[in-house]
Design goal:
With 100 residues, the chain is α+β, with helices and mostly antiparallel strands. It has one domain. The chain is 50% helix and 14% strand. It is built from four helices and four strands, in the order ααββαββα. The longest helix is centred in the first third of the chain and has 16 residues.
């Protein structure tokens, strides 16, 4: 079993884009069982899925609700990556090999 590096967790929660893209790419590769990947790189369709999912994760890397206030201004961050969107699933399912 691979060892989980606490530094990777910290980088992911901090919004490190390289870490986020890496994690989402690995998840997409697992979902499709490697179909649509060549030499570890996703094809254009799967790269688009990785991009959209990574953007959601990057928007809230810690994946927890955050409220910030500065004077009369406030910002509330909710959500983020909670799984594949419906559009992403349509693309991923084209490459997915289901158990038989």
């Amino acid at each position: 079993m691979a060892e989980v590096d606490p530094a990777d967790v910290t980088a992911l929660a901090a919004g490190d884009l390289e870490q986020i893209v890496s994690v989402i790419t690995i998840m997409a590769k697992a979902y499709t069982r490697g179909n649509g990947f060549s030499n570890g790189e996703p094809n254009d369709e799967l790269a688009a899925v990785v991009t959209t999912a990574a953007a959601r994760l990057a928007a809230n890397g810690a994946q927890i609700a955050v409220d910030e206030t500065a004077g009369v201004f406030s910002r509330s961050i909710r959500g983020g990556f909670t799984g594949w969107s419906l559009a992403e699933q349509f693309v991923l399912n084209r490459y997915r090999v289901r158990a038989q």
